[in-house]
Amino acid sequence: MPSPTQKALAKVPGPLRPFLVQHRSLVKFLLVGGTCFVLTLAINYALRFSICQSKPVVALTIATALATVVSYLLNRQWSFRSEGSHKEAIPFIVVSALAVGVNDLPLLASRYLFNLREPHVSHFTQEISDFLAGMILGTLVAMAFRYWAMKKFVFTTQRADEELQDATAEPVGPRH
């Protein structure tokens, strides 16, 4: 009986399969990250247009922290397939706290170092710079940091038998 991974790989064009198999944890990490990015974006702007109107860094910090909880659950169960123990919880919290700070740094610099805020710039320029610095640049830098730190310090014990099984399984689907 083919696994769900094997079924999904059968639908991928042949030349991409080796790349996806070789980098499957990165691909899964990026899918989880994309989902959490959308969640962060939604929470951030919900807060910015309601209770955190004058506190964009606070809104981004809260949004990132909430999305981090979702990220932990998804990465633990799917991306890195950690074994059943919760020994990675404390390193995850430390890495995530550092990553929230890394994520906030570009927005802090944009707002308070480069003064890209009202009254120094127009409201439109402020919003564009906040989005580019906080949501785009901050997320990209924090994502690279998280991926490296999660593999290095948090999810260090993957189920070797499942990894080996996925990598060596017979491809499902029509053979050419």
Main attributes?
0% strand, mainly alpha, 176 residues
Structural overview:
The protein has 176 residues and is mainly α. The chain has one domain. Helices cover 73% and strands 0% of the residues. The protein contains seven helices and no strands. α3 runs antiparallel to α6 (123-154) and α4 packs antiparallel against α5. Residues 159-165 and 172-176 have low confidence and may be disordered.
Strand portion: under 5%
Q: Tell me the overall shape.
A: elongated
Task: Specify the oligomeric state.
Answer: single chain
Task: Indicate the structural class.
Answer: mainly alpha
Total count of strands: 0
The structural domain count equals 1
**What is the average of the pLDDT values?**
82
| Cα Rg | 20 Å
Distance between the termini: 21 Å
Major sheet details: none
Give the fraction of residues assigned to helices: over 70%
- The helix tally amounts to 7
Following the backbone from N to C, one meets helices and strands in this order, namely HHHHHHH
